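Help needed: design a sequence for this.
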């Protein structure tokens, strides 16, 4: 007799009673610690993932649970495959988001604003907040089962990452890829900082189209602009002038969604093909209340109204007047027009988007009446402009208009185009953009952009899954604008640039030589770099800018500050440090000069293996990581990619297709699901939901006991885990402990029964399918294979079928144990906790092996997470056993259907009457059929009493002993309903096969399956009709 399992498990699996202990075992064993030396020595291959760092602003949501579950599945799978795995954890400082949250907290708790504190004092408050939430996030990730290398956890503002930021900024600055420029930026008036284009979210709003009349005047001396009359315009051939009183002052009507910006207008534009353009040459428009006289210019950007030849299908043409107010300081398109025509730029707003005369409104004159607008919010100013124009008879119309307006992704306030001096990365430079496009695989890249520079071995290796997202990446780079990287915040990496106005940069003559010598030496040493406007620009800067490589370089800083230089107060965009994440987390730029935790990491694990992320940050993050990794590592590794694969997972929505959010109250907290269902149930459900679609829906409802949001979808995951535990602990472990002895050390598949060979064949197919699905990031396929092989194949068919034989079949007991141990390993990446709990007692029952099934020990066989991935040879795929078993399954299903229709009690044994050919086809499966179908016998003899016939594969079979007596009326009613169902199904199949769109375009095997199903149901209908005829 074999020794029973030594590990005792409770009858019921309660996740909360096991998961903390399992986590503690993993941590104590150092199971997730990566060893780069094994990679660098050639002992094994690397597999690494750099975690998308969650923001330190709040607890993790279900989207985080999904993304991190998928990453963990990949890491655990490859760890078991023998790869040296590194999953690098970390968090992001999230500049705008974190500062905004802390500002609100401090205001609520202390009644103070940020500006009431010294900069360092307020940053300390944010740091304390960060420490609190970072610890919470780490605990949540561990609760989710994330097998990260926790000893290497990083933060985007820790000293290692900060050094990488300084080095990257310095190199880009020195190479002319970072510059200072004055241009329109996306301004968030709430957080009062600039935003990059991809930090702006467009929303449809219900706005207006206001039609404002600008009086026309002659071009004359300043202050002496006489009115233009309609008669003058008529004389010049102005179409429609004759409709107005001859002596009235003429006007042009502009249409705008933002009347308040008229205060900053510096021109009115007209399309040169407009028939009115010629009559307006030499004339000007005067802005009411402002007093500014502005030119009328011609520009082809202006949309012609439909009445004057505009496109009748163009929504803009339908609303247009043909005259465009040009406000270079407050509209990006107007800015471009202003640059073409060298128009003045007049900013009429303060940073909070209120109307102000103190931020660039150089010709403000309160005597003209514009003072009535100063100090108003932009919304109030909009209405005030309409009121003032209406009072003067200059408001022609106001029409409702739904249009798209950019909003801040953080404050959700409407973005204000705002003229400002900011720092930019020249991502449009071929050294960055072209390198990113060259990275794409050739079959996914369609860009016609010139890609200068000879290609290298790292080009053409970046692949997106699903591949539709490659187009998003490509189109972003085709339409790229330089990246604004400065933010008017305190929390973040402060820009390492010092500057002084040129007219204040005065060096005493006696110090000049030494000063020049100092910075020449420092330039040569790579400690400083002087910068200017963007390469190729003719503009000049009014300040001298110097980038200091190390902001702690006291000698250099003291020298420059002595001559009036001050450090830029702004910080870098959060995404700048995030773009360096694949390198900074591994110690770059001094990976081998820091400490042991970084030694060899960059060489062993960069590039990482895959990035899994959401589609909304393909532009914000993926693009920039590719550009930075390729550029900054160009000299060391020939511009390699940060990762070859990018998997974009689906977005989780609620049951109505809405994004989950706090404001809607439809979010689901992953910790609540872990508490109610267990971590494994949550992970399995999330994997099963991860199809190749763009979005997946999860119905949300209130838990009646806790009042918390949950979803019935998680019940399937819990039921799956319960089935596993009950099958393993409630049956296999117990039965193999009680009935052991005589098991062979090695079992040859050819010596096994049909059901055993079938189970091994199904196991081999599942293992192969899981390997293929994992390689293609098809997580739902992986989860479905687990469900099929465990619940359907192993539990519902195999274990039920071998119950009568396993006690007396030693070789079969080996198969039972080997298959279960293999399934546990297949399951482990998705459901790590419950499989770790079951692994030890199941492994203790191993007394023999099946040829073709290998279960490697791995690095530490005492833990499932570090055991080897199972090897199941494809030679175990037995098509004959599968075909025979599948036919038997269909027969059992048919018998069960008849039992259900006749309401035969589950324990009642019935008899199957079949012809000799049918009985012969069940050779080797007769006992299994009897067990699964609840039969007392399978016989070729005719039934002695009443029997119920049924059709199976075109052959009439009969079942007897269903009841003491079969009621003819009940049987007739049953058959009539069956006939009705068959007629409906046959009609649908015939309709499908008569549709050329299906037969010509659907896969051939599906069409053939449909034809076979039709034939089977037609035969079954014939049998039902025959039986009805017999009943009369």
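Sure. Designed sequence:
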């Amino acid at each position: 007799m074999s020794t029973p399992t030594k590990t005792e498990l409770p009858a019921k699996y309660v996740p909360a009673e096991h998961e903390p202990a399992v986590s503690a075992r993993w941590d104590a064993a150092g199971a997730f610690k990566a060893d780069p030396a094994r990679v660098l020595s050639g002992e094994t291959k690397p597999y690494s993932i750099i975690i998308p760092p969650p923001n330190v602003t709040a607890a993790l949501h279900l989207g985080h649970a999904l993304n991190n579950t998928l990453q963990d599945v990949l890491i655990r799978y490859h760890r078991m495959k023998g790869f040296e795995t590194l999953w690098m954890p970390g968090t992001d400082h999230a500049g705008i988001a974190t500062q905004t949250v802390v500002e609100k907290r401090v205001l609520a708790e202390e009644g103070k604003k940020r500006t009431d504190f010294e900069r360092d004092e307020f940053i300390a408050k944010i740091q304390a907040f960060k420490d609190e939430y970072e610890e919470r996030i780490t605990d949540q990730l561990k609760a989710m089962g994330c097998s990260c290398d926790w000893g290497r956890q990083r933060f985007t503002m820790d000293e290692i990452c900060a050094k990488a930021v300084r080095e990257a900024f310095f190199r880009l600055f020195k190479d002319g890829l970072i510059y200072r420029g004055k241009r329109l930026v996306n301004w968030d008036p709430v957080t009062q900082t600039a935003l990059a284009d991809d930090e702006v979210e467009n929303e449809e709003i219900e706005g207006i189209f206001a039609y404002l009349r600008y009086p026309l005047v002659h071009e004359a001396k300043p202050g002496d602009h006489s009115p233009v009359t309609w008669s003058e315009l008529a004389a010049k051939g102005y179409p429609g002038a004759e409709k107005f009183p001859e002596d009235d002052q003429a006007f042009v009507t502009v249409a705008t969604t933002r009347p308040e910006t008229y205060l900053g207008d510096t021109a009115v534009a007209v399309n040169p093909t407009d028939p009115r353009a010629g009559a307006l040459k030499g004339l000007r428009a005067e802005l009411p209340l402002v007093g500014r006289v502005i030119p009328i210019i011609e520009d082809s950007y202006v949309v012609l109204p439909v009445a004057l030849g505009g496109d009748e299908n163009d929504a803009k043409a339908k609303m247009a007047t043909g005259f465009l107010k040009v406000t270079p300081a407050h509209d990006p398109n107007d800015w471009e027009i202003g640059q073409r025509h060298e128009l003045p730029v007049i900013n009429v707003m303060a940073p909070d988007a209120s109307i102000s005369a103190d931020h660039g409104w150089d010709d403000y004159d309160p005597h003209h009446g514009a003072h009535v607008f100063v100090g108003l919010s932009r919304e109030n100013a909009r209405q005030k402009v309409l009121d003032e124009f209406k009072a003067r008879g200059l408001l022609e119309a106001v029409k409702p208009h739904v249009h798209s307006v950019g909003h801040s992704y953080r404050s959700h306030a409407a973005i204000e185009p705002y003229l400002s001096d900011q720092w930019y990365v020249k991502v449009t430079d071929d050294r960055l953009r072209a390198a990113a496009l060259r990275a794409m695989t050739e079959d996914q890249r369609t860009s016609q952009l010139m890609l200068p520079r000879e290609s290298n071995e790292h080009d053409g290796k970046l692949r997106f899954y699903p591949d539709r997202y490659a187009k998003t990446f490509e189109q972003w780079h085709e339409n790229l604008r330089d990246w604004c990287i400065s933010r008017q915040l305190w929390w973040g990496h402060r820009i390492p640039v010092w500057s002084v106005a040129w007219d204040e940069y005065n060096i005493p003559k006696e110090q000049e030589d030494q000063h020049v010598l100092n910075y020449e030496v420092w330039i040569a040493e790579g400690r400083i770099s002087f910068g200017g406007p963007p390469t190729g620009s003719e503009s000049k800067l009014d300040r001298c800018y110097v980038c200091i490589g190390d902001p702690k370089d006291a000698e250099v800083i003291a020298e420059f500050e002595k001559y009036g230089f001050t450090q830029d107060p702004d910080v870098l965009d959060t995404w700048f440090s995030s773009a360096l994440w694949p390198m900074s987390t591994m110690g770059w730029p001094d990976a081998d000069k820091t400490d042991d935790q970084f030694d060899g990491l960059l060489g062993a694990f960069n590039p990482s293996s895959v990035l899994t992320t959401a589609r909304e940050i393909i532009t914000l993050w993926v693009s920039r990581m590719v550009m930075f990794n390729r550029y900054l590592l160009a000299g060391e590794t020939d511009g390699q990619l940060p990762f070859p694969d990018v998997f974009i997972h689906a977005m989780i929505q609620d049951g109505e297709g809405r994004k989950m959010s706090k404001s809607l109250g439809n979010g689901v907290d992953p910790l609540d699901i872990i508490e109610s269902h267990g971590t494994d149930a949550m992970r399995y459900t999330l994997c099963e939901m991860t199809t190749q679609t763009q979005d997946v829906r999860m119905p949300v409802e209130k838990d009646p006991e806790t009042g918390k949001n949950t979803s019935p979808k998680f019940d399937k995951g819990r039921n799956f885990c319960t089935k596993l535990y009950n099958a393993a602990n409630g049956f296999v472990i117990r039965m193999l402990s009680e009935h052991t002895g005589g098991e062979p050390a090695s079992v040859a598949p050819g010596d096994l029964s049909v059901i055993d060979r079938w189970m091994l064949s199904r196991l081999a197919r599942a293992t192969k399918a899981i390997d293929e699905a994992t390689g293609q990031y098809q997580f739902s396929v992986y989860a479905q294979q687990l469900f099929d092989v465990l619940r359907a194949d192993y539990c519902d068919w195999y274990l039920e079928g071998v119950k009568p034989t396993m006690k007396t079949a030693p070789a079969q007991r080996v198969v039972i144990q080997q298959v279960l141990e293999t399934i546990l390993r297949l399951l482990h990446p998705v459901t790590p906790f419950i499989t770790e709990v079951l692994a030890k007692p199941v492994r203790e029952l191993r007394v023999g092996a099946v040829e073709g099934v290998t279960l490697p020990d791995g690095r530490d066989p005492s833990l499932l997470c570090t055991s080897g991935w199972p090897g199941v040879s494809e030679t175990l795929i037995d098509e004959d056993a599968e075909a025979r078993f599948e036919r038997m399954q269909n027969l059992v299903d048919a018998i069960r259907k008849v039992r259900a229709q006749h309401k035969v009690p589950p324990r009642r044994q019935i008899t199957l009457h079949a012809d000799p050919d049918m009985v012969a086809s069940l050779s080797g499966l007769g006992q299994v059929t009897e067990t699964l179908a609840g039969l007392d016998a399978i016989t070729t003899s005719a039934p002695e009493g009443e029997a119920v016939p049924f059709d199976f594969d075109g052959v009439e079979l009969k079942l007897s002993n269903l009841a003491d007596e079969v009621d003819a009326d009940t049987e007739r009613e049953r058959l009539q309903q069956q006939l009705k169902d068959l007629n409906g199904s046959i009609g649908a199949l015939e309709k499908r096969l008569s549709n050329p769109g299906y037969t010509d375009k659907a896969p051939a095997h599906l069409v053939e399956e449909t034809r076979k199903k039709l034939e089977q149901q037609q035969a079954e209908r014939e049998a039902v009709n025959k039986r009805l005829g017999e009943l009369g």
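The two ends are 62 Å apart (CA to CA).
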